[in-house]
Specification:
Number of strands: 15
Structural class: alpha/beta
CATH architecture of the largest domain: Alpha-Beta Complex
CATH superfamily of the largest domain: Medium-chain alcohol dehydrogenases, catalytic domain
Helix content: 25-40%
Shape: globular
Distance between the termini: 16 Å
Number of helices: 10
Bound molecules: NADPH dihydro-nicotinamide-adenine-dinucleotide phosphate
CATH topology of the largest domain: Quinone Oxidoreductase, Chain A, domain 1
Largest sheet: 7 strands, mixed
Number of domains: 2
CATH class of the largest domain: Alpha Beta
Amino acid sequence: MFNALVVEKNEEGKTSASVQQVALDALPAGDVTVAVEYSTVNYKDGLCIGPGGGLVRNYSHVPGIDFAGTVEASDDPRYNVGDKVVLTGWRVGEAYWGGYSQKARVKADWLVPLPSGLDTRQAMAVGTAGFTAMLAVMALEDHGIKDGPVLVTGAAGGVGSVATAILAHLGHQVAAVTGRPETADYLTSLGATQIVAREELNETTKRPLEAETWGGCVDAVGGEMLARILGQMKYGASVSAVGLAGGAGLPATVIPFLLRGVNLLGIDSVMQPYANRLRAWERIAKDLPMDKLEAMIVPATLSDLPKLGADILKGQVQGRVVVDVNA
Ligand code: NDP
């Protein structure tokens, strides 16, 4: 038996989450069984700990869209007992049982060997949010980052914090957009050179183009803010669209694309092929300073998760929550 956060749904359709003892036989089918060490709290986890937001396929459910740990049993020649591994994506924690558990069983194809230079705790301090931030930065690089500050929205959140630290480490000026002015010192410590108040970009304007300001953008917010940002990008600059913390709509015009050659790049961390995942994790180990990663960590245990899940949906979590599933 082992401990896991189990979400159940009653006959009225109401969900509840609690730490329970689970038998090894209850784990889903898979090639590799992992003794999980750490998991994290992402926006999707908030949905899955609560009513599910349409993501969870079956109840009882164990959420946790990412984890890092040690291989305990393997039917796949690529993984041996004792190997350290990381998992993000592939609908683990949504359609399949996830990382809020001391054991997980998954397909070998979904795993990545822990990159050298990271331990399992650091890998989960990065987690899905940080992995996505790296993918977003790599997409900007592929399309060319222009002169001028790179804008990061939702900066005090998980994706935003890691994107800020990576971009600053790579030598870019980073303008961090936040709705929480009290996080200014934190964002500056991660390397932000400019703090932009969320309200400045939330004001709507009828002008489809404004002064060319940003050399690139990692956007975790979407909605009206993204529409406004498109009109402020430098000629030929790119926006990596990562999230929708501020809304799924996009009330934009085509003008920034037609008259400024702006690129809107969609970033999906869930279905990334193995080679891309490996490349991104290797870049993380190289380009994310570990002292800045430490500064982002909020430690947690399985029993803290119901509250943290609600907090992240309200945009109230700062940095990266690292869940020690054995604590
Ligand atoms: P967090 O909750 O940690 O961060 C989101 C941040 O957005 C908040 O901290 C807040 O930052 C800001 N924010 C929240 N609500 C609003 C609002 N109404 N208007 C403007 N800003 C707001 O989440 P994550 O960083 O983990 O994820 C961010 C987004 O990225 C989510 O939508 C998530 O689903 C998505 N995501 C997508 C992935 C992909 O593969 N494409 C993978 C991982 C995440 P501040 O207080 O600084 O303003």
